[in-house]
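Researcher: Here's the sequence for the chain we discussed earlier.
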Amino acid sequence: MLTLFYRNLSIVNGATPLDNIQFHSFNNQWSWDRQLNALNEFTVEERKPDMISVSRTPKNIGNARFQNVWYTNETGNIFTHSHLVTRGDGDWNALAQEV
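Model: Thanks. This is the structure I predict for it:
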């Protein structure tokens, strides 16, 4: 998996620079539910960071479940919450509506 972060426009005053992006990998032996709970409780130095994205492998690989969170050093919204949406029918339009 490759994740690329980029800006469409140059940095303006007050924008967060990309050089402070960090990531955290969760225990890949945990269940998906436990990892989702850990994501929603994730803090850095006892505060919610500014989360950019969460990436997961599309399926268990070697009985492991890989989940990473990408974030900046900036303080994030304390009400940030992730909710998992899954579909197995291949209906991308319906998935987009659910999101």
